[in-house]
Task: structure prediction
Amino acid sequence: LAAQLVALFSGGDWMEHFRFLVPAFPLLAAVTIAFSMECTTNVYRSLGSTQKPEIIATVLCAVAAAANLQQSGLNVPRPYPLQMDSAALKYNLREILFSDRQMDLTVMRQNAAHRRDINLLVPFLEQTFPVLYRDAGQITVLTGQMGFFPYWVRKHYPEYDVEFVDIMGLTDSTVARMPLKKDHTGIAAGRSIDVVVEGKYPSLTNYVNANAPNLIYTLGQDPQLDRRLEVCSRHGFKPVLRNDGAVVLYRKR
Result:
């Protein structure tokens, strides 16, 4: 119910791959089964049939499961091509269930966003990020992507002194309460790192500067990325990672 309320009050299930709807699937499935059983029972009672509806429902579920396992995969197109293997990634239940790889990693690779991060961001987090941390002693990350990056850092480097400044305001109450234009994903200005760094919105920029970030993380799929990087470069941020899935800028203090 909470997941559905989030989708309702935030403008719909706007996250890719139906992320707001998926957590409610088990409940929806249970409710659907219970409702279907009740309807089937009433129909058989009205028809005077002696057949047990439970048997029919079980057979139908078994057929549906078998069909799912035999399907070749569901192509889910993304609004922005990943520019890796293809613009559509295959979801295959049979491949997930019977793969020799660790289940959580397999599921993550089947998700487009996580696949992007694992292939294009994790090597940086494993190899370069510790080097930067040893150089800086403390890292404050300016980002509008409070998903995989913070999760990975907290999980693998719990001893590191790393702070995040969420310029979208989804996880930062101070930013969220700023009198700036908002849409269903948070502070609209937070999508443009150059706007924040350059100071077009003083309240947001002043808050960012007060936290003294020395790392910027953003996505690589941005047609205006070159211009944004040029602005950041004037403020001392230099690219330490740039590919189709991730861009990381570092500034020495």
The longest strand covers residues 139-143.
